[in-house]
Design goal:
The chain is of the alpha/beta class. Helix content is 47%, strand content 13%. It has helices spanning 2-12, 19-31, 36-49, 53-64, 94-103, 123-127, 139-149, 162-173, 180-194, 214-230, 252-264, 270-286, 293-305, 308-319, 330-333, 356-368, 407-420, and strands at 82-86, 109-112, 151-154, 198-205, 235-241, 339-343, 349-354, 382-384, 392-393, 400-404, 421-424, 434-439. The chain has a four-stranded mixed beta sheet, sandwiched between helices. It has a three-stranded antiparallel beta sheet with strand order 6-10-8. Helix 1 (2-12) packs parallel to helix 3 and helix 2 (19-31) runs parallel beside helix 4 (53-64). The protein is globular, with a radius of gyration of 21 Å. The model has no long low-confidence stretch (mean pLDDT 94).
């Protein structure tokens, strides 16, 4: 125990940790010999003192090795595997559409996702708003589902990356989320353990992202790409805009509803579609099933328009314990908040800016996210019909609709939403949700 305290002291004082020190501390997280208080202290020390590339790589690989590392070809997958990770945003439900799209194009996607972190939503929390949906599959069931359906989405199993499971939860409640070394180690340790052949990372940039500037996002992209390369995982990054809600909803069951609309072809938000297809292009090209971006775009678009992606999602839901007719009758299954109320601006005009982090915190305060790691989530609350930058709002055109448990919660949310949105009299142009793509050149 004293030895591990000494490691914390070294990092607190700005020393570069040796690989054996990092391995000892990470293994202590996994076996329980390092306390939550010590993990918190180390997280804070890393947050303020940073880490070298060698330290980041050592921590990432050590965390991955604390548990089982999957080999999909040994598990019976006869084809390419690829996965996607998002660094977290507000209303980011892309994984829910992307996995079935690429799976219907012949690329297996065994996705290990996370829960809400800070002001951002979590894929697992969204899926658990579907009655019966089980995100806690064991490895054998996970593999069987991926073989049968083409994709499955689960949380970390007890056997996979146990060190990150504890670290992740503590970062969420100690304001050490937005640390490049910790983000890198957390993302890539899980992805290395998940065992895909290739990886695509959706790196969010803006007011609702952990990386709020392009400079910081590029620094994180470099850290991720270099670390993944050292670990032998071919990886590409796509930098996407997170200066507003992605899509029209933010909140767990509401985002599942939007996902269903998207897959059914009932309604597809342009920015959400742009990001989804851009990531699908990268995954299909990286997996070798498409020769170039244009071919990949055609494949992904056909998967959507033909209904194949919809069918894969429906089979995934059913295979993981959800209803077999969810996409035909979503209103029958998705729970609703007790009340819904439109939020109108104080004056008419066009939206010129949105504080997406503030919007994300509104969802958390409504009960749709966590302020402590073990808090229960109300999957019904959140926002729908969210207006975008460039949209006109006024007395008949709301900023969004708040879904809340009661009037008091809705009142507080309305105040914050109005503060989060900047409105001007002139027209405001819209912009692409895709900022740039990057990969490690050899």
């Amino acid at each position: 125990m004293q030895f591990k305290t000494e490691i914390i002291r070294k990092k607190r004082n700005g020393a570069v940790l040796r690989e054996k020190d990092i391995n000892a501390f990470v293994n202590g997280i996994a076996d329980g010999s390092v306390s939550n208080e010590q993990i918190s202290a180390m997280a804070m020390a890393i947050f303020f003192q940073n880490m070298t590339f060698d330290e980041i790589s050592a921590m990432t690989i050590a965390m991955a090795k604390t548990g089982q590392i999957l080999n999909w070809h040994k598990l019976g997958i006869d084809g390419p595997t690829s996965d996607k990770h998002s660094t977290g945003g507000v209303g980011d439900k892309v994984s829910l559409m992307l996995a079935p799209i690429v799976a219907s194009c012949g690329v297996f996607d065994p996705m290990i996702a996370g829960r809400g972190l800070g002001h951002t939503g979590g894929t697992l929390d969204k899926l658990e708003s579907i009655p019966g949906f089980n995100v806690n599959l064991d490895v054998e069931t996970f593999a069987r589902t991926v073989r049968k359906v083409g994709c499955a989405i689960i949380g970390q199993t007890a056997k996979m990356v146990p060190a990150d499971r504890r670290f992740y939860a503590i970062r969420d409640v100690t304001e050490t989320v937005d640390s490049i070394p910790l983000i890198t180690a957390s993302i890539l340790s899980k992805k290395i353990a998940a065992g895909p052949d290739t990886l695509v990372i959706d790196l969010k940039v803006g007011t609702g992202a952990f990386m709020q500037t392009l400079e910081d996002a590029r620094e994180l992209a470099t850290s991720l790409l270099r670390t993944a390369d050292r670990a032998g995982l071919p990886t590409k990054c796509v930098l996407t805009d997170m200066n507003q809600v992605l899509g029209t909803t933010a909140g767990n069951a509401l985002e599942i509803g939007e996902t269903i609309d998207y897959l059914n072809g009932t309604k597809r938000n342009d920015r959400l579609h742009e990001v989804t297809i851009a990531l699908a292009e990268k995954m299909l090209c990286a997996a070798g099933v498409a020769a170039d971006a244009r071919a990949a775009n055609d494949m992904a678009t056909h998967a959507l328009d033909s209904g194949r992606a919809r069918e894969v999602f429906a089979r995934m839901v059913a295979s993981q314990g959800g209803p077999t007719d969810l996409l035909d009758s979503p209103a029958k299954y998705l729970p609703k908040a007790p009340m819904a109320r439109p939020v109108f601006p104080r004056h008419e005009g066009h939206i010129s800016g949105i504080d997406a982090r503030r919007i994300g915190n509104v969802v958390v305060d409504l009960g749709g996210g966590r302020n402590v790691s073990n808090a229960e989530i109300d999957v019904t609350v959140g926002l729908s019909a969210c207006a975008e930058v460039g949209h006109r709002v006024g007395e008949r055109e709301p900023i969004c609709i708040v879904h809340a448990a009661n009037d008091s919660d809705a009142d507080r949310a309305e105040v914050e939403i109005v503060k989060a949105v900047t409105i001007v009299s002139r027209e405001v142009p819209t912009s692409s949700a895709i900022i740039e793509s990057t990969s490690l050149e050899h």
